[in-house]
Amino acid sequence: MSTKILVTGGAGYIGSHTVKQLGQAGYDIVVYDNLSTGIPQAITYGKLVVGSLEDTNLLAATFAEHNFDAVLHFAASISVPESVADPLAYYSNNTMNTLNLLRQCQRFGVKKLVFSSTAAVYGQPAETHITETTHPQPLNPYGSSKLMSEQMIRDYSAASGMKHVILRYFNVAGADMAGELGQNNPKASHLIKATCNAALGRTSSINIFGTDFETHDGTGIRDYIHVEDLARAHVDALVYLADGGESEIFNCGYGQGYSVREVIDMVKEVSGEEFTVIEADRRAGDPAAVVAVSAKIKQMLGWIPRFNDLRTIVHSAYAWEKRSKALTVVPNIVPTAMPTNVISMETPVTKEQQLAVAAS
Ligand SMILES: NC(=O)c1ccc[n+]([C@@H]2O[C@H](COP(=O)([O-])OP(=O)(O)OC[C@H]3O[C@@H](n4cnc5c(N)ncnc54)[C@H](O)[C@@H]3O)[C@@H](O)[C@H]2O)c1
Question: Which residue in the list 142, 156, 169, 254 is annotated as catalytic?
Answer without folding.
Answer: 142
